[in-house]
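# nightly structure sweep
# worker-07 picked up a monomer target from the shared queue
# config: single-sequence mode, recycle default, output format = structure tokens
# input follows
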Amino acid sequence: MRCSRPKEKSIAKLSPAGGGRNWPAAAPATTLGRMRRTKIVATLGPSSWAEDTLAALAQAGVNVFRINTAHGTPEEHRALIRRVRALAPRCAVLLDTAGPKVRVGLLPQPVEVRPGEEVLLGAGGIPLTHPEVVGAVPPGARVLLADGTLELTVLENHGDFLRCRAERPGTIQAGKGVNFPGAVLPLPALTPRDRESLALAREEGVEFVALSFAQRPEDVGEARALLGKDGPWVLVKVELAAAVARMAELLAVADGAMVARGDLGVEIEPYRVPLVQRRLVDLCNSQAKPVIVATQMLQSMVASPVPTRAEVADVANAVWDGADALMLSDETAVGRYPLEAVRAMDAAIRAAEGGEVPIRVPGLAPELVGEVPAAIAQSACSIAQSVGAKLILCATISGWTAKLVASLRPGVPIAAVTPRPEVFRRLNLVWGVVPLLIPEAGTVDELLALAIQAARQAGLVAGGERVVFTAGLPFHQPGTTNLIRVLEA
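# output follows
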């Protein structure tokens, strides 16, 4: 049975009870010896923004809640951020920008197109929301509409319109996306709506901003300038062919990445998407930057309470590739079974992590290996294995040491202690890291005592068990990790 999209209510008008379901209590997301290490990102929407549903999703194991600013108003987004803060204070918030998406403009009615027919795109033909892109599309280029089902070949570029030939049949509808694979389009990195979203992210202190349709490193720099110093981590979404060609350059200036397989599968052949996914995961792992694999992970659960076998295999392969986090989109935003989708994702990840297939570890990039923090991270992993430590415990101001240790994918659990609430929540996106919030410490001995106490209270280590501890001196200076000790809890 096909699932209809739930009617979208205003966030601000939801009652305190939220109008959601009374879910049964879920098992804790992390328990000693059975800790899930790959994180879960869940998109909020009409199916999940009710208070009881949102709280149940957090209890079921969601680490990061995503808000897609392509839908709703800034006031609704602000209310939703504050709802997450109130109901799931340990969870992080990811704000996803709408981006400069090219779409079909207003049409009196849908246009049916058959193979061989000519189609005019732009002035005097099918209108586009960004007509300025026409000049950047050369003859011979491909144009894809209707999620890639309708393919056109550009025959002539007349400056303000394109004369095209249809290669595959399809229907052109107002508001649907238009893709120009391989073309670098003269679009602004950030639309006025995106700038408003970034201002909101800065004001509300969200942990992550995902930059949609980024093409150039300068796009990331422009977003950073608006977010300010110590602002949210910027994640670049790889969803354009132009972004695939410049993945390394984009990641060099970003804090992490997302494999946005929806638009990416239209921009490039869908058969290449798994290869791009693995390349980007490897690249992020080598740079110690978190990476999210997204789109259609459990798509059938929009309408079904159980996933398909192929979807479970997709989740497992993303885990084995080394993704930091996996994302649910429509499954939790508009699907019928948001809680079941999170539980299915949790179960599939745990099964993959508990099997005999090792997670791929590409190793740190050469430019990081010679740095002191990277050497400390590598030593911590090696020592933990040699002495039979039960935990690697990283004291961190920025989260960098914890990310370095996590990028090496050690078999020993990782915890990160920090006095900064924003760093505590940001580490929810990093593979294997259990973030712990502690007070400021004035001495090494005080820091050690606070860190061990927090780890014991969290059930991560028991009295007498060995712990490998890393920190930096002098205190309160990011990037100064230079201390390593073996302790007993």
